[in-house]
Amino acid sequence: MTKAPRKLLVVEDDPGLQRQLRWSFENYDVLLASDREEAMAHVRSEEPAVVTLDLGLPPDVDGASEGLAVLEEILSANPHAKVIVVTGNEDRKNAVRAIGLGAYDFYLKPIEAEVLCLIIDRAFHLSELELENQRLVRGETGAPLRGVITSSPEMVKICQVVEKVALSDVSVLLLGESGTGKELLARALHEMGQRSAKRFVAINCAAIPENLLESELFGYERGAFTGAVKQTKGKIELADGGTLFLDEIGDLPLSLQVKLLRFLQERVLERIGGRQEIPVNVRVVCATHQDLPELIQKGSFREDLYYRLSELVVKIPPLRDRDDDSVLLARNFLSKFSREHNRSIRGLSNDAIASIEQHSWPGNVRELENRMKRAVIMCEGNRLNAKDLDLAPAEVKSEPVNLKIVRELAERHALRRALAQSDTNISRAAKLLGVSRPTLYDLLRYHDIKV
Fold it and tell me: At 76, phi and psi to the nearest 5?
């Protein structure tokens, strides 16, 4: 992948010098500004890691007051920015003052592009090292699993578990309500593992009639039964070398549970009507919304099969227990379906956000996706509201009285809401909250919120 060019902001009011610097810094993505307003617009929208700043800016081109004010404003907006102050030989005093205010370095005119480039390159290198160190301190390993959109600590932990076990061959049992994303995690286990080059084969044990399920799983030989006109491989055999995903394993009939258990123990199968034992090397991932220990007590699920399938159990929380994931997902679906259906819908209204937050989502992510798709198609305005989503107006909930609890709940909720509204963009979230990026990182660590 091609690395994005480093963004360098050059704050200089002399057009001739601007052109010279742009030409000298051709290895960078150069942003030009001639006054405070232009400079701050670039700082907020582009977040350049390094800035060269001429202290003599209008309206005080012969002094340094405006340049020093811009320096303070840049560092207030982005404390990690490396600002290199450029000033005249006779103005060394203000250059030293700028260092005291937080500038990274200073350079005295006349400009020698080669020397200034060395200073700028060193500043970029230091900035990148600091960012990498912050990622290591925060324990960041990149975005959650492909396709998983979350800011919930519980879901982040589940993603971390999936990442750890993906390279092993242990059998994984995914537990969760319908629509929580069990197949999504099963595919992630496959794609991140050593079997990703082979097939991912899924079968829903509840969707196929019992008399057909055995042939679907194990295959059959020609003439094994009426209609068996040719030899056919089953799902298990087709997944050889890859991953077999058995969805709704709790609905597997007892007669097939015995046959599946034998396959898991011996790793060989016989097609219906066949006598030959066929070895199959496959990883098994199962999922169900049912309580398997309860089914074991009732005698409808084999205990020995349960322990074969549950070498690792992952419990996926329902959407209603994932903090502000509902709003985060809703914005993602809004963007997706607006593109697909060529609709120019700007976002969610406040009443839509409140209704999404308070709805219990019995159908989980699948229900939210369906509602968002319908709303995008049917919406007549430029912003979705609760009526478009066919959700009841939000009700006012009772709040705790203890001030410390109230403050922490409000702060935590505000953080999650800002992350949801900014699509987890730290800079935009900080701007929404009216705090600096370092302050936001401190708050996220305090509340144990991982982005």
Answer: -70, -40
Q: Cα–Cα distance between 340 and 381 in angstroms, integer? A: 17
- Digit-by-digit pLDDT tens for the chain (451 residues) are 445 678 899 998 888 888 888 888 888 889 999 888 888 888 887 888 999 998 888 888 777 888 898 998 888 778 788 999 988 766 778 888 888 888 888 888 788 888 888 889 888 888 887 776 655 544 444 445 777 888 788 888 898 889 889 988 899 999 999 999 999 999 999 999 899 999 999 999 999 998 899 999 999 998 888 888 899 999 999 999 999 999 999 999 999 999 999 999 999 999 999 989 999 999 999 999 999 999 999 999 999 999 999 999 999 999 999 877 888 899 889 888 988 988 888 778 878 888 898 899 999 999 999 999 999 999 888 788 889 999 887 654 544 445 666 677 788 888 888 887 776 788 888 888 888 888 888 888 877 777 6
Token pair of 21 as six digits = 């610097």
Contact 305, 171 (CB under 8 A): no
Residue 69 corresponds to which tokens in the numbers above?
């004010």
The candidate with the shortest Cα–Cα distance to 447, out of 419, 422, 425, is 419
Assigned token pair, 196? 């990703």
Tokens of 437: 């990026």
Q: 34: burial class by Cβ within 10 Å (0-12, 13-18, 19+)?
A: middle
Query: Who's near 24: CB < 8 A, 6+ residues apart?
Result: 113, 116, 117
Cα–Cα distances in angstroms (integers) from residue 19 to residues 16, 25, 48, 58, 357, in the given order: 5, 10, 19, 18, 52
9 vs 33: CA distance, rounded Å? 7
Residues 142-149: contacts with CB under 8 Å, at least 24 apart: 145/184, 145/185, 145/188, 145/192, 146/188, 146/191, 147/184, 147/187, 147/188, 148/181, 148/184, 148/185, 148/188, 149/325, 149/328, 149/329, 149/332
Tell me how far apart the alpha carbons of residues 117 and 120 are, in angstroms, rounded to a whole number.
Answer: 5
With CA atoms as reference, report the closest residue to 254 among 214, 199, 194, 200: 214
Strand partners, 7: 29
In terms of Cα–Cα distance, which of 272, 187, 282 is closest to 233?
272
- Residues 397-400: contacts with CB within 8 Å, 24+ apart? 397/358
